[in-house]
Amino acid sequence: MIYEITNKEKAASLFSQWEETLIWSCLQGIMGSIYADDSDHPTAAMAICGDFAFFSGTPNMELVSYKPDWCTQDFIIMVPQNEDWKNAIVQFYGSKSKIVSRYAIKKEPDVFDTEKLEKIISSLPDEYELCMIDEHLYQMCKEASWSTDLVSQFQNYEDYRSLGLGSVILKNNVIVSGASSYSRYREGIEIEIDTKEEYRRKGLACICGAKLILECLKQNLYPSWDAQNKASVALAEKLGYHYSHTYTAIEVYGY
Question: Is the pTM of this model over 0.90?
Answer without folding.
Answer: yes
